[in-house]
Specification:
elongated; mainly beta; four-stranded mixed beta sheet; single chain; about 450 residues; 6 helices
């Protein structure tokens, strides 16, 4: 009998506990609700918040969210009557904007280089045609944002990159037609051309200015015959030639006279692959003292507030470096016509900036070009926008960490493989297909806000 009463008592307690549990609402601790991409609104309903079955007649004290609720937490209370008893629970609701902004670029833009202008900085005002986001301000960037002399006479595809306040991105594309303009230039009255080999002469050999000059150069001999391809060979030694430089835009022209002289000259050549501090051996050993150049070695300096100024040649000389340490050392003969040029590729790390400076030496007579990479390290710089790219798989791969091949926390998402029955495969063409999103037409820059450029082959 005692066991019987104990069993009845245990059952009563179990029933009481079950009733008590069912009489209480249970809410999620935190809920993210996406705003509609067109209205910027979201409806808050009990089923989004309550864990388990939603009681009939359950209500919420906040029925709608809007763009004004972004970037903050809204406390929402759900109330219901269960078994005749009032019950409620609370949850933190976060409004989410996951919709891309609307990117609208001018379909075609025409720009004109001004006289003596060597580059053209595009502004978003040139390209943007009313891009917007339903929930607030947008940031606009262009890639590329600078046009150069080599772009004159071509059409350049420019990408308008639109980012909203939530970090969502979208792109639109514009065809920029690049026109030149009449450029004021003057010709050197006479030019002495020492030649021991065939020498091709270009327009910049004859003019005094260093701007974008869209001009045609024709060289003739004393009989009025055109020199083929403007290549001066030893056959012209002792002759007086004439170069006529004509502006392709307004027809303006000027002339230079050429005196071709014989010079016994060894060909210009660079075989070094090591810098000036390397032991002298031969060409196979990486450095010889019998060719025409020594390359500068890698250097390290303390970075300042503006590392881009710190690496200027003049600044490097001012802080104590020698010319041999900051630029190629050339050994020239009178018959050599040589130009040097460098291009910097800047990589920002957390506490330093690494500059890969690609040097190019060109010998104009032989049209030979030689390149060397010098590393300049700026220690102590603080870079907030360091790039982190670790994905080796496309955006369709399951997300994980860097080792998995697809991380959703790095700065780039690679496009997935696609199949189309069409010959138009440029990124700006692919986005026009309804079956292909912009994320599969080109890499998506998802975190980093710095200026970037994307190229494909």
């Amino acid at each position: 009998m005692k066991n019987f009463y104990q069993l009845i008592f245990a059952c009563a307690i179990a029933i009481f506990m079950d009733v008590g549990a069912s009489a209480q609402l249970n809410c999620l601790t935190e809920v993210g609700i996406e705003l509609d991409q067109f209205s910027g609104m979201a409806t808050v309903t009990p089923d989004l918040i309550i864990v388990g079955e939603v009681p009939e007649g359950a209500t919420v004290n906040v029925a709608e969210l809007s763009c004004n609720d972004l970037f903050k937490t809204t406390e929402v209370t759900v109330s219901a009557v269960i078994d005749g008893n009032n019950s409620s629970c609370k949850t933190s609701v976060i409004a989410l904007d996951v919709s891309k902004p609307v990117a609208i670029a001018e379909e075609t833009v025409i720009i004109n280089f001004g006289p003596n202008q060597s580059s053209y900085e595009l502004s978003t005002a040139n390209i943007d045609e009313g891009s917007y986001d339903i929930c607030g301000d947008i940031d606009l960037k262009l890639s590329p944002s600078t046009l150069f002399c080599s772009d004159i006479g071509t059409e350049v595809m420019v990408t308008l990159i639109v980012t909203d306040e939530s970090g969502n991105k979208n792109e639109s594309f514009s065809t920029v037609i690049v026109n030149g303009s009449s450029t004021t230039f003057t010709c050197k009255s006479s030019v002495e051309v020492p030649t021991a080999h065939g020498t091709r002469l270009t327009t910049d050999f004859f003019v005094n200015e260093n701007a974008c000059i869209a001009a045609t150069t024709v060289i003739t001999d004393s009989q009025g015959n055109v020199v083929p391809d403007n290549i001066i060979t030893p056959n012209y030694i002792g002759q007086m030639l004439t170069a006529i430089i004509t502006d392709n835009i307004d027809g303006y022209s000027c002339t230079s006279t050429l005196n071709v002289i014989q010079v016994d000259c060894a060909p210009f050549a660079i075989c070094d692959t090591e810098c000036i501090d390397a032991p002298v051996t031969d060409c196979d050993g990486g450095r010889t003292d019998t060719d025409n150049a020594d390359w500068p070695c890698d250097i390290t300096i303390e970075g300042g507030a503006n590392p881009y100024n710190d690496i200027d040649i003049g600044n490097l000389l001012a802080i104590g470096f020698t010319r041999a340490e900051v630029e190629p050392t050339l050994v020239l003969e009178p018959c050599h016509l040589v130009a040097t040029h460098y291009e910097d590729f800047i990589f920002e790390e957390t506490d330093r900036t690494v500059v890969k400076r690609l040097w190019t030496v060109i010998e104009w007579y032989s049209m030979a070009a030689y390149s060397y990479e010098q590393i300049i390290t700026l220690e102590g710089t603080t870079n907030s926008g360091v790039w982190n790219i670790c994905d080796t798989q496309s955006n369709s791969a399951p997300p994980g960490d860097c080792d998995s091949g697809h991380s959703d926390t790095d700065d780039v998402e690679w496009p997935s493989d696609i199949s189309i029955n069409d010959h138009r495969i440029a990124p700006q063409d692919l986005v026009a297909f309804s079956s292909i999103g912009s994320e599969d037409s080109r890499p998506a820059i998802v975190n980093n806000q710095q200026i970037y450029d994307v190229e494909y082959i």
